[in-house]
Amino acid sequence: MLQLIEDTRALLNGLNLKSMKESFVSLAEEKDSSPIEYLYELSHQEQEHRQHKKIEGLLKKAKLPRNKSIEDFDFKRVPGLHPGQIRILCEGEFIDSFENLILFGNPGTGKTHLSIALAKEWCLRGRKVYYVTAAELVQTLLEAKKNVTLNLYMKKLDRFDVIILDDISYVPYEKHEMDVLFIFLSQRYEQKSTVITSNLVFSDWQQIFKDEMTTAATIDRLVHHSIILELNAESYRMANAKRKLEFSTKEEI
């Protein structure tokens, strides 16, 4: 019997059925079931194991900088933003139609929190997501262009269903350098989804692209298939600082 167990374990390992390999003996000892029921339970455990490993891999590749969740987002602070609207976005149906999501708002209103939390939800649903700041992406695109590998890097980015482009307002580059960002956004147009967070409304985007025609062309492509959310609220960090100051003042009194 021991040899049969070892042979079975080796066979399952060769078939890359890792969960089955670990549990087929213990499950047989625990359950008094028919062969079909036993096989079903083993297969179910294997499926759950693979799904768990897949999600782990998607979250790792997403490069999310912090662990944020929808449950932790304070919707009461953002008038007009309904939790049901965000729950619909969590399902990711807009991704299938290659729509974009643009989050506008003052600094500290939760744009990054919300984008990271949504990205996590999409990973849990099997979507390929990648988070990057706009400044970091432009720098990487410029390096790829310099090394004549820009097309190769663009193809690598095309593997992701959604790219989170955070803080597009903070891109300290010249006009000729910003062309790579325009190329990136143009290539994803009607092909993949992009999430953009910005402190600047569209009318101020010439500060980013430094050129009226490029700005207009970029906005035209983004707005054509986009969901736009405005997070009009007081900065969370500012509000928190005020609360601390008030608490400190009361203690002194």
Structure description:
Strands 2-3-4-1-5 form a 5-stranded parallel β-sheet. It has 12 helices and 5 strands. β3 (162-166), α9 (175-188) and β4 (193-198) form a beta-alpha-beta unit. It has 2 domains: 2-62, no CATH class; 75-239, Rossmann fold (3-Layer(aba) Sandwich), CATH 3.40.50. It is an alpha/beta fold. The protein is 59% helix and 11% strand. The protein has helices spanning 2-14, 18-30, 35-62, 83-91, 93-96, 111-124, 134-146, 150-157, 175-188, 206-209, 212-224, 236-252; strands at 100-105, 129-133, 162-166, 193-198, 226-231.
- Looking at how many chains there are and whether they match, the oligomeric state comes to single chain
Strand order of the largest sheet: 2-3-4-1-5
The named CATH superfamily of the largest domain? P-loop containing nucleotide triphosphate hydrolases
Distance between the termini: 78 Å
Structural class: alpha/beta
CATH architecture annotation name of the largest domain = 3-Layer(aba) Sandwich
Give the ordered list of helices and strands. Answer: HHHHHEHEHHEHEHHEH
CATH class of the largest domain: Alpha Beta
User: What is the CATH third-level topology name of the largest domain?
Assistant: Rossmann fold
How is the biggest beta sheet arranged?
A: 5 strands, parallel
Beta-strand segment tally: 5
State the helicity in percent bands.
55-70%
Q: Write down the overall geometry.
A: elongated
User: Number of helical runs?
Assistant: 12
Rounded to the nearest angstrom, the radius of gyration is: 24 Å
Uncertain segments? 235-251
The pLDDT mean sits at 87
How much of the sequence lies in strands comes to: 5-15%
